[in-house]
Amino acid sequence: MTTASTQLAAASGLMSLVLFIVAMGLLALLAGGFWMNSRIKYRESARPRPEEQPQLPPDGPVHEIRENRESAEIPKMPKGGRPLTPYELSNMDSKTSESKDRPRWSRGSSGSFGGGGLGAH
Fold first, then answer.
1. Are 105 and 118 contacting, i.e. CB atoms less than 8 angstroms apart?
2. Is the pLDDT of residue 121 over 90?
3. How far is Cα 110 from Cα 121, in angstroms, rounded to an integer?
4. pLDDT in tens, 39-54
5. Which SS3 state, helix, strand or coil, does residue 94 take?
6. Are 97 and 70 in contact (CB under 8 A)?
7. pLDDT tens digits, one per residue of 4-16
8. pLDDT, position 108
9. Within 1-121, where are the H helices?
10. For residue 109, with 0-12 CB atoms within 10 Å meaning exposed, 13-18 middle and 19 or more buried, which class applies?
């Protein structure tokens, strides 16, 4: 064996040792991650038992109600007065509309952008 091949063999052995140490370090990090995860899960509260799960109301499932709503009128600003701020308007309630027709922007449209209607032709 020549000295050049001996030096190359020594270098590759050192490289193998470094790669082995790096691999062992990564495995240690992975094992530490699993260990930390198990500690965190152990500290969490237990899952709810079946009797603690939500129950249906006594009247059965709640269904959707379709109705048109009308907003309350905004109070008019008195002449010479100052306009109301959003904080002074309070919670503007809505009421059930007397009309049962769905509001439409134009015939053949659903009333929303990209609603799938043919649009005004």
1. no
2. no
3. 14
4. 999 999 888 898 999 8
5. strand
6. yes
7. 666 655 667 788 8
8. 60
9. 3-43
10. middle
**Structural tokens at position 35:** 């260990």
Which residue's entry shows tokens 């919670």?
91
Cα distances (angstroms) measured from residue 69 to each of 91, 107, 115 = 15, 21, 20
Query: What whole-number distance in Å separates Cα of residue 52 and Cα of residue 49?
Result: 5
Residues 79-105 have pLDDT tens digits of 888 888 888 777 777 788 887 777 666
Distance CA 9, CA 87 (A): 81
Instruction: Retrieve residue 26's tokens.
Output: 């990564």
Whether the per-residue pLDDT at 115 is higher than 60: the answer is no
Pairing state between β 69-71 and 94-96: antiparallel
Question: With pLDDT > 70 as the criterion, what percentage of the chain qualifies?
Answer: 76
Do 117 and 92 meet the contact criterion of CB atoms below 8 Å apart? no
The single-letter DSSP state of residue 51 is G
